[in-house]
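Sequence and fold
=================
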Amino acid sequence: MYNLINFALNLMEEQNYGRPKFMPSQNPKLNIMQNPDINPDQNPSINSSQNPNINPTQNPHGWKNNQWRLFQRTIIWVYLNEEQRRECNRFLRSL
């Protein structure tokens, strides 16, 4: 989940230049260091070492789907456009 969240935040930072509301570096809701809900180190439900449903070694066949469902419930999802969502999905599938 950490990789997916970081990918999404980096993508948003890169593609949303000039739109502070959609840039993690300028929006505390999207900043992983300021929002514990999207920080896997602070939120056990999105930490793959603490949530076996999203851990590839403990759930080898369903972890990607479970991570995707959790990702869709984060605040990040609201700020992504459709193309960014597709890119995030492609990234997750490539892992």
In short: DSSP finds four helices and no strands in the chain. The chain has a mean pLDDT of 97.
